[in-house]
Records
---
Amino acid sequence: MMRSLYSGVAGLKTHQTKMDVIGNNIANTNTVGFKSSSVNFSDTYYQTVSSATGPNTEMATAGTNAKQIGLGSMVAAIQTNITEQGGPSTTNRALDIAINGEAFMVVRSGTDTCFTKAGALNIDPAGNLYCTTNGATVQGWLADDDGNIIKDTVKDLKVMSTDNMYYPPEATKCATISGNLDLNDPKVDFATGNGVPITFSFFDNIGEAYTVKLSIKQVSDGKTPPSAVPGQYTVSVTDVMNSAGESVFVKKVTDDKGVTTYQATKTEFTFGDKEIKEANIKVTPSTGDLTIEGASLTLNFNATDGTFVSVGPDRTNALYKDNETNKPTAVNFCITKLNDQTATTFPQYDKTTDDGGVNVFFNSLTQYSQGGISKLSSVKGREVENGYVDQGHTAGKMKGVSVDEDGLVWGSYDNGAKKCLAQIAFATFANPSGLESLGNSLFGATQNSGEFDGIGEEIGISGSLTAGALEMSNVDLANEFTQMITTQRGFQANSRIITTSDSMLEELVNLKR
């Protein structure tokens, strides 16, 4: 009789444990990265009244089974449903990441290396990337000065260090002129027009901005009477302006009597194969009017269909040639001397590599008839499949940090530049369910989960990231409430075992009255 009482007590304890787990699951329904748990029971402690016997052929008797009475149940395991993915919740926050798959983000809490699925990140006052859910510092690999990730033992991701707060300036390597040059535009007429004006801008090595003025005009055939050569134009440099809007070729001089005159600044430059020296630059002393001689190159179009053919002299670098026609698509502009000093702030053109200076692309131009009005524009950089590159920029100050879907941490700067600062490290385990829950959405490695190697891996090896989102709890409320009902009924049934056994004992005691 006493055995049934203890079986009932064991049943009450196991069902209470299960109810505790269910309560914890439901309490964490909205906990970011939470992994629900489930309870498994097993029977226990059997008392053998008689052992099993085999058949006896001599006595012609059959075998008998063992007679055993169980003594209740016990909690066999509390299993964490760690591999079940929680649904993503979009936040559109630059430092939020939802971790998909079996990977865990590596973090440091105090002196311990831990692992988490909570991807709500931020920057602490020391510049470290940390997890806002538990305050643990995110671990990974830092980038070098060129933005290359150096994969070594994981360390704290100090992404807002002194070196990263500012972005150095970078010289513009290329510029692109595009649009349509209308052959009927009066401005391009070789006899009466002044040329169609167009400008392009660039930065030098220290981030100073300059603007180059160009003029495009038809070429005369030199006959009598003269006429335009079909599809052929000259493109000429007419001036270069600094960031203050002043010509780099002209300086204003005021004498003791207050009389102002204008002089040439001795600035020199190259345009394609044209070397423009001091003698080629004329300035009218009284008005400051500027004339640049010899700074013209040839721009060619197909006279039949109006498409671009070539510009300027031939090039050796294939980057500046058309892939199909092998014709030059860009000319080089380079300031070789500013005022009376060698222009060390400008990237100089190297004839051996056919690079340096600013390479100006003209292959986006067309020569179509569009009402006699030319429409031209320019941008810094050269066009590639996903936009423009080699644009250059001024010095910049960091204005924000973001994490992309590869776990790369990027710094964005107020000059429009982006720089790779670090990469978050992740870890996977042979038995992720063997990880130990440490609270605060943290897990620790155990002997049964497998050890962390101290280096980690990229997210793409064993999972993926969703930027601007968080992984929510994987608690299934429908299942939890169903489990709650069955657990309650099990608890009630076990309590009835105790009360019923007590009633039977009472009847036994009442045999003697």
Note: The longest strand covers residues 228-241.
---
Amino acid sequence: MRRSAIEVSEVFVTADRLSRRVIVLAGVAAILAMLAVLLPDMAMRLAAGVAAGTLLVLMVAIKLMSGIAQRPARRMDKALFDLVGLDASPCFATNDIGQITYQNAVAVERFGERDEATLVSVLKTHFTSPEAVLYRLQNRAGHHGRAREDLVTRRGHLRLSVHKVAEGQFLWRLEEFQERVTAARGGDTLSLPMLVANKAGVVLFCNDAARRLVAGRPKRLEDVFSTDRLHSGEEVMVNAAQGPLRAILAEVEGPGERREIYLLPVSTRNIDRAEMTDFEDLPVALMRFAADGALIAANRAARDLVPVEAASGAMAHEIFEGLGRPVSEWLGDVVAERLPGGSEVLRAHGAEADAFLQITLRRIVEFGRPGVLAVLQDATKLKTLEAQFVQSQKMQAIGQLAGGVAHDFNNLLTAISGHCDLLLLRHGRDDTDYGDLVQISQNANRAAALVSQLLAFSRKQTLKPERIALQDVLSDLAHLLNRLVGEKVRLRLAHAPVLGTIRADKRQFEQVIVNLVVNARDAMPHGGTIRVETEALTLREDLHRDRARVPAGDYAVIRVQDGGVGIPEDMMEKIFEPFFTTKRQGEGTGLGLSTVYGIVKQSGGFIFADSTMGEGTLFSLYFPINETVDAPRAEFVAAPRIPPRMGHGTVLLVEDEAPVRAFASRALRLRGYTVLEAECAEDALRTLSDPSIEVDVFVTDVVMPGMDGPSWVKEALLTRPGVRVVFVSGYAEDVLSEEQSRIPNSVFLPKPFSLNELTVTVQGQLH
């Protein structure tokens, strides 16, 4: 079987042509033989005899050629007969264009002789679209060697398989199953509507009851049902001729992936009373909803969580809210199996206080009707913790942003104010540009104050904490506060008789009180009284309030209360956020309370606010009592230092910001110092590797690419222990205070600094 089917077909054609030629030659040879006998002329008889003999020889040659040509076809026929000749199923051999080259006995008996016909023409009356099916199977067999497919025919179930037996030749086998055909056709005798469909939804058969129900023979299942998802045992809506009709669908799997569908009447039985009792008494909160979202039942545990009547028929969206999309759509997706169910945290609609519920949905079927079972759990505490976490994350993110912005702004402001100071040195008061330079300097200082407020909120400002007595500080502030509140507002101070000391930065603490009093004044445009009271309070147990925990212990409490307009409830959670203000446009920056919040938190305290619209606002500050006497700071004994040459000194300036470095180096040189510049820590260490270079003071930025300021200074002091250090930074790093305490003879100069502040600090380190 090495020859192709086309070659075999050509062999048959060639053999047929040769046979016809032999017959013609035989007739001609007979005529010539007769002429050789009958012609009178001897020469002509001889010529006729030679021609007749030649034709006889040619006839023998043609006969031999015909036998040789038919030999491969006979061998192929024998091989196919040995393979499938006695098969009980019809078998066909075809070439690559579908022409039949062989049929076994069963195929001849079942379909008749079909020599040179196509297999498509043989099977076209047995199933739908035989061209597409045969092409698909032959193409698959051409790639994989074999293919098989089960088909639904008018007589039942057909399994059609094909094997590639040679290049361009295929062997087909048909297995027919008719044992269930009678059962399917027997559906005509049923009184129940019955349909048979394939996996693609094409209706292959429907009985008389089904045809009467839908008034005709449907072509597809969607012509019968209003949904494309059909589940056995569930209620469906049938598109009947008289209008929509409810029915219970029962489905039986048939052969060849056929679906036998029966329609049963809907049950009218009520829910068993015992079943309802069990549902009512379950300790788990349960609700049952219909497919349209209407509440069917809610047990006692569910009614304790949600204020709803069990038989009210309320819709799901009337019970729950806060999903972000209609709740009824969520239930509809679960019923239609577009979603597997899942859990969501929703708010109980109409509850007096915020009540959050974790709701888990599951699709259920009751008496054929699909619905949803909702399992409820109280999630109010969980939602509260989530809100606290989100608020904490938001405040932390804002703090990091404020700190980063402040750091960059301080570098810019240092360069602006520094170069302005350099210009002021060259311009006298009589100079026409002097006033403009003063304006630049003053506005740079205002910007620096604004950045300082950002640093206070982000808790990255540089504090100088000390033990302070609240009575003394508030008494000293009384005169200033009275001037701030004006004539319409009265200020009343009330101190506890015994009040311990707290540990805080005195200047920053005064700013806290001033900001709170100014806010209280602005809240009373028509006048009133501001009360500033102190109290010694001992907490026996932790105080939990406003997402904060105040540990048990002794506290000094400062309360600032006004009788103003109050703060709306929906704004209370935002009052400590930067740039949030309740004042009108242009009347406030929104940084007052955020600054207070940052200073209090950085000082280890707590702040809470209470407000009632139309009655006023109360701010309560809790500071832990600190009776511990500050330990004296250790004195670092520095190695003997060589006095600066010629009354001056050498400064190694390390700053990665070029404008700041340019200003600082010029300022120090103007004061007579020798300045060595480095733009990073690595450059500074390379400069110090030369032992001939003598340095008196390191002036270094704290935050730089690569090594930071404290790291390279500690390494440099190993070989130069007598050098003093000035750290500069745009904001206080968490690690700086720890690192600086380990570095002897070091001071901190916050940015932005002026020319005079820089030179005075360096001079203080040298002398």
Note: DSSP finds 21 helices and 30 strands in the chain.
---
Amino acid sequence: MTSPVRAITFASLLALAACQREAPAPAKPALQVSAPTPIEEAPQPKTEAERRIAEDVKQLADDRMEGRETGTRGYDLAAEYVAKRFREIGLVPAGDDGSYFQAVPLLEARVEQAGAELRVTRNGRDIALRFQDQFLPAANFNAPEHRVEAAAVFVGQGVHAPTLGHDDFAGLDLKGKIAVVFGGAPARFDNDRRAFHSSSREKLRALVARGAVGAVFVNTPEDEAGSPWAQRAADWRASSMRLRGSDGKGLWTFPELRGIAYVSAASADLVFADGPRTAAQLFDAARAGTLKGFALPGTLTLAGRTTLKPIESRNVVAALPGGDPALAGESTVFTAHLDHVGIGPAVEGDTIRNGALDNALGVAIMLEAARALKTGPAPKRGTLFIATTAEEKGLLGAEWFATHPVAAAGTMVANINIDMPVLLAPSRDVVPVGVEHSSLKQVLDTAAKEIGVEQSPDPFPEEVVFVRSDQYAFIRTGVPAVYLMGGMVSADGERDPGRALQNFLRRHYHQPSDEATLPIVWSDAARLAALNARIARIVGDAKTRPTWNAGNFFGETFAAGKP
């Protein structure tokens, strides 16, 4: 696959996902529905397994689910459907109070335009950036109104990685200051560490630890190659969410940072105006790995208003109890996110983002894997099946479960995640993401050989998809995980799965056209369900639990089991 294709595929996907999770689905317009435009004529399911998967996708991606956005009536309808399917399969309710539902407390925030401000006061000049065109305030989960004025310090990419000999904060005083920061992490880092240090949570944690009172994230041209500023700016009305603690406050909201804003790459020079270096020089230094921080003259002012509302959503949770009393207190955990992005601006007359591949198909494959496991002897360890909420808002449903597991989970030994399998051209393979980090690699090798499916290397290792979906919530609590993507090797020599993936991401990702009428290869979906079920059975029956490989970054970083 060529470099331009790669840039359009996962770079775009991840950047778009980041925007969706940080900032907002537009205000809900009236429903408008039009016939979707399929890529090609959709194949028909042939086997019973294929028909079951197809029917589940059809139901979950139906317009009546209204795009399944977290906290909406449509999501609740989808959750009820999945609970009904768990019941039909014969799985045990494993949620709250003997139900199939685990309540997930959330705090919803919506940015208001009135009162939004980012002002640079420097060398006698007063520069006010324009809302939406040049900057956007982040939702403030700690106060309905905020205003902070302080001196500013550029901190590079805001990365402190002493084991790699890197410290963007060296020699800088951030106490009481507003940090100006680029995204990402140094290119010389290996993929895993670069992904970890690129996390906004890690950056904000580092800023708070050094006494910062605000933050301005400045986009680079590389950031906007995959996700143009105009795309994010158009969605500024969308809601953001965080988990909500028992005190009613949001979790991981960093109240010490009294204001946070984002600035477009085209407007970066306004933030660095009259400073020691231009934005172009800093962009070049970031590419060259020579970026250094410095104090900026003058002050920055950040202000904004946020509408806050506590809401509640639900994970849908079912269990297949373990067959061996000695191991039944341990569990293998399946996850597939049920939510999507709801209703947005009309595209060719259609406003509903149905999310057939993202992730109705993943949930349907999980249901079929559950059925396969239920029809045979129960694995010795227990197996949990979770349709998670709020993945599109930042992996929130998965994080809540991983940190507040239901009683039936016992000791979680492995996570098998299924997210957006793009199965639009027949393939001979699957792409395993993350298995190289743990003994699950040996499990997958055995399962793939038994099922008769090849394995292909991750075509985009630099994107580290391993930390981009629900499995990361479990990884952060020390649980080894595996995530299987659709294949890349054509099964018929004519239809190219890689091109089909490219086409999906260009035309259908988070769009109304992600419909059940797309040409989903149901035989590949059934095979993926069988493979995931086989992985769970091998893990469930093994004498020992899966383990992280010796010296593995994720295993060592999250060894204490704390996020």
Note: The longest strand covers residues 294-320.
---
Amino acid sequence: MKKHSLLFSLIVLAFACHDEKKEPITPKYVEESHSYARPNTAAITHLDLDIEANFDTKTISGSATYAIDNNVATSIVLDSKFLNITKVQADGKDTTFTLGDFDAQLGRPLIIDIAPNTNSITVFYNTTDQTEALQWLSPQQTADKTHPFLFTQGQAILTRSWIPIQDSPQIRITYNATVKVPKALMAVMSAENPKEKTADGIYTFKMKQPISPYLMALAVGDIQYKAVSHRTGVYAEPSMVDKAQAEFSDMEKMVVAAENLYGDYDWDQFDVIVLPPSFPFGGMENPRLTFATPTVIAGDKSLTSLIAHELAHSWSGNLVTNATWNDFWLNEGFTVYFEIRIMEALYGKDRANMIALIGRQDLEEEVEGFKNEPEMTKLKLDLTNKNPDDGMNSIAYDKGYLFLRTLEETVGREKFDAFLKNYFKTNAFSTVTTEGFVDYLNTNLLEPNAIEFNVDEWIYQPGIPDNQAVIVSDKFENARRTLQSFLDQKTVDVSKTQNWTTQEWVHFIRNFPESITVEDMKRLDDAFHFTNSSNSHIAMVWFEQAINHDYHDHHVDQKIEDFLIRVGRRWYVSTLYKAFKRHDKVDEALEIYHKARGNYHSVTSNTIDEMLGYN
């Protein structure tokens, strides 16, 4: 070998060695208490998921392969819960791993041994009968009662129970997936989706925009697709798909209204799947495919503000994400504000204010419920050693909204809209802490306009500050007067309530006085058929009042029981079980719950178990 060739080789080798010994990168992830992951050491960036859903064993099995951003680490930590890990590979070769101690909330850390230059890991696994994110439904638990159904619910920290993953909202990954299901069924995910069933039951998916792990979602069932517009549409069981398409026919108008407010929709497609009634939430904003409860299908579009809400998450939550669950209000407070602005743009200020006022009433009740835990009424929470679900309540949603509405009224709508539009654009596909938002707010809105505002009181102190925006509704005032007139005169003039919205009816029922009699309740029920209402929101508030005021006979009692067995939406059922408990009727509640519990997702049953002391 010639001398100059040897020198050249040594130089090349030196550069190669230097490259292998990469300098540690500057930390970009904040510490949080709801994930075992150490992303500043090694973070996942892309997932290739290859799984099969087995309805006989009620398990998902397969592999999760991750591209990783490796900061010269010798191990990478994933979150797992109730998973059976069978094998792990690093860069395609078997490697060693350990599972840490089990925590009831967090599950177990999966610690995988890697080299400082490892670029990928693969985890082979299967779910178990304890997996909390998955709900396997028998045909009898579906709308059409012909085929089984499966859906996932990952928020807040349940994705780790069906995929081993770094289950923190500040992690963002793209993903591809291959999912095998029975040939009679279709699989859809929070990704690019099929419009028809395949012949072999194998489906492939791609999500090219980076998302947080709690937004990983899968549904499998006998479903069909119907378009609403070129970029919106609905999936549902065959008997439901036409109803869903009709109910959600304003979806494209909602997308246009949202874009006019705060910029382009960055997720290409906005579809909704109507799930069986055991789905625990009104909706879940999984990117490209919102999961929705059938309880919003009232036949008159009166409950479709939920669709506006989930669409708004395409900016607040999905595009700009809360860095930790302590910052959850950044997700939901912004989304409620955005939802109400969409509803105002489409249906007018009266309807928007009615929705906002119902939220304001929910907030008042929530604050009262936390009178012994005032720290839980802060926007920025400390949920260390608590389930992040504990922060998913009206404080995040409605106090967050009220804060933003008060800001809007203080600085003016034009300036506030420009600020929010820039906030979404500047922070797109990233995560934000509460402190980061406060800094952004001061720098880009308050200081340039020389505006004094009690930001710290709103965010870091309990309760509702005195400078809150006051929301008024003439239609709600009319509903109150109409109720009082009916009660005073002991007669009911149905003509006075013609063309009322769901919001007016909810306000009417919620404002029953403590002194209302069973005879008054029956008179109103005979006139308006509340016990037989097909509108789930009206039925829920009516049944709560029936429990509150001992209005019951065999028919009413049976309808309440049927509702609690059929509906799994946590807000609705927890409201009614809470009413039973408040009036010392826990035994009656438990008798119903024993029949209903099997129809509930773990998100709902965990809440009711604790509420009623069920074991």
Note: The chain is about 40% helix and 20% strand.
